[in-house]
Design brief:
homodimer; alpha/beta; Rossmann fold; 2 domains; 6-stranded parallel β-sheet; about 40% helix
Chain lengths: ~425, ~425
């Protein structure tokens, strides 16, 4: 078995499964005048107008897929993408805005989306495209608040140590569009949200702050958070509640995940099986410090060799999610490259194990690499060129280490993002 | 299912399997005048004298097991245990020495062991008992070197950043007993080493520096290491090579592991199955930073609930090995308690998952606890008593946190040590 070649084929399958355009076309089809999406069928001749809105870094290719499916049926539209991420489209209007720091262009475009949603009525369908970055690209502060004021509140919260759930609860209630409010604006039209998830666990109310998903948090939650962190608002917040789980308005709404880390991992598992490896998915929600996550992957791979468990070789261990790197040095790298470097140290002179880690967006940290890989000779190859594995790990310099070893992975930007995919192939030693 | 009760039963089964006396008696039996050990049978009436030597923290109960098996057949003996760890025995002579810093009593006792081994001849059997701490308890410097000189060399190496393999290579060649030399001293007698392993991977040449195991390192290895680290010796080292793999002297030697992390985990898996959980052993060689290892365990448990993989619920995830804690605060705790605290944070309000981590020696860090456990309410229970989970984790204060939550595990010292056992029970949420 050629582990390096096979790991690369598996990684390619993982990426292909979450290509935004292909992923959308795999989940949504038009056959004989009927739009099939998830468990719902929409008869096109029974629909009055089809509006298209949305926001996110991967939304341009998603919009292109919708054009391919619906062509002239598309009515008014506004889809917000990150600066430099547009595509040439025939019908759907793309607008660019700033990411990760929102700007006025984002506010204007979000207002246009709210306008379109409000215009939609009974018999209409609003298709909403959502992908990573959608929250920052589609900022629409509540009446009386400016974008700057909203940002200053989230900055205060970050400083005070609020977690992502607390941030989102407040953000949703300071927005006119998030936390299910876009779905409420669109009612009584039907809503079909097509979602490329970039969050751990694929919680619909978290992805892009859930503009078409019920919001489990309340104004009471927000009051508690303000009190806990001693936050002050420049003026009174409108007491407008977001729509809650169970609200009948969601009967007309379908949120459909067309791409996610789990779907990418599933495709990797299928490819591994095709190549003769028994796939074992450890988890698609892995967080934590990268180097320790890498060591644990190698320890499991060793158990496969030593004791034929948790799965017998030849095996393909898979995991997804997004780890972190506590920067200690000023080296160049990203979390996927650091995974490969840490794994390489533990794999030194271990025959029959090959590890690969890749960011599905094709951009790992501030580098031109998408990730890296490691085998028994990675350390030897790099050290023959004057590198020292432990020193390079200590200074977070995984890029130069893997470059010397010939173990960088480069794909170029993929225009998708469903976090990271890790692949560890194991044969009997 | 009562997860807490079941996890405790599984932990008990894991500990029982590596009780030194029981573990030895499970692997060694005397039936009709024949000593059965591993793949070898020793006819007692064909043996001239049976000598018993050894060193390690768990060797007193191991020696008691040998007394039960062989009684009056035992000839001269010397088994070295840590200060405060002796038992009242009838025949086998126990000696106490200092651990972890060796002392002259250890040198004297080791010299006695060498004397006994040298006395053993054709037709004799030398039983050697080895367990954790054996290396420090049985120091016997090569001719012309003092214990202090040997220690100063290992101190220099530690400072220079040598790893455990480099340390062991040098130590073995500065010893008269380690690296297979005890087996050479005992030749032409037969040697039966009964080993309780406390090292990751159970490498025989590593446990107690492998006094009866072939040594893959050579004087050449040592010269290289001295050169690499710029070490100087107070005087020339004797050019005596340790016995190598393939040396015919090892034909008369059997090294038998009677207790290990893997055996403990196997027993836990069997108990879990008996209680209705599908066991999945992730690895018995897990190292790395404890809190990140904990997060990864929880992420895998969540995958079991969410996607019925890598195993369907009700499941018991098991792992062994020994993690580390990079101390950042001045709190009280140990690695197993820190595992429980870190898991508790991720398990907050997650129904149907119970995590437990225990040091098999019954002493986790400088505390009277053996480990800790965590469920969905652990954080709530501790925070109701004024604790803050994240702050306590930041200051490594897992003991007081778990104490408040009622989630400390206490067993008292177990007189065994095969590192740690982690148990994560998962039911459908």
């Amino acid at each position: 078995m050629n582990l390096r070649r096979d790991a690369n084929l598996i990684a390619k399958a993982a990426l292909r499964a979450v290509d935004p355009e292909e992923a959308l076309l795999r989940h949504v089809r038009v056959i004989d005048g009927v739009l099939f999406a998830g468990k719902t069928r929409y008869r096109l001749d029974a629909l009055r107008t089809i509006y298209v809105v949305g926001a996110g870094k991967a939304c341009a290719p998603m919009a292109r897929a919708i054009e391919k499916l619906l062509g002239k049926r598309i009515g008014e539209s506004c889809v917000i993408v990150k600066d430099g991420h547009p595509l040439r489209l025939k019908r759907i209007k793309l607008r660019e805005a700033s990411h990760p720091v929102p700007d006025q262009r984002g506010v204007d475009a979000a207002a246009r989306i709210a306008e379109i949603a409000a215009k939609a009525g009974a018999g209409d369908l609003v298709i909403c495209l959502m992908s990573g970055g959608g929250s920052a690209l589609m900022p629409l502060p509540v009446e009386g608040f400016t974008l700057a004021e909203k940002q200053s509140i989230t900055q205060q919260m970050l400083k005070a140590g609020a977690n992502i759930h607390e941030m989102n609860a407040v953000r949703k209630h300071l927005s006119r569009i998030k936390g299910g409010q876009l779905a409420r604006l669109a009612a009584p039209a039907k809503v079909l949200s097509l979602i490329l998830s970039d969050v751990i666990g694929d919680d619909l109310s978290t992805i892009g702050s859930g503009p078409t998903a019920p919001d489990p948090t309340t104004l009471g939650t927000v009051d508690e958070i303000f009190e806990r962190f001693g936050l002050t608002l420049p003026r009174a917040m409108p007491r407008v509640e977001t729509p809650k789980p169970g609200d009948p308005l969601f009967k007309r709404v379908q949120n459909l995940i067309v791409g996610s880390n789990a779907l990418s991992i599933d495709a990797a598992a299928a490819k591994a099986r095709e190549l003769g490896y028994k796939p074992l998915v450890l988890s698609t929600t892995i967080e934590g410090e990268t180097r320790d996550v890498a060591r644990m992957h190698v320890a499991i791979a060793r158990e496969v060799q030593r004791a034929r468990r948790p799965v017998a070789p030849p095996a393909c261990l898979l995991s997804g999610g997004e780890t972190t790197v506590a920067l200690k040095g000023d080296g160049l790298g990203g979390r996927n490259q650091e995974f490969a470097l840490a794994a390489a140290i533990d794999l030194r002179e271990t025959h029959g194990i090959f590890a690969l880690s890749i960011g599905t967006d094709g951009t790992d940290g501030p580098t031109d690499a998408a990730g890296g890989c490691a085998d028994e000779k990675t350390v030897a190859r790099a050290e023959a060129k004057g590198h020292n594995a432990r020193k390079d790990l200590a200074s977070n310099d995984s890029y130069h280490f893997l470059e010397a070893a010939g173990d960088l992975l480069k794909t170029g930007p993929t225009r998708t993002n469903v976090m990271d995919v890790r692949i560890v192939l194991v044969t009997a030693s």
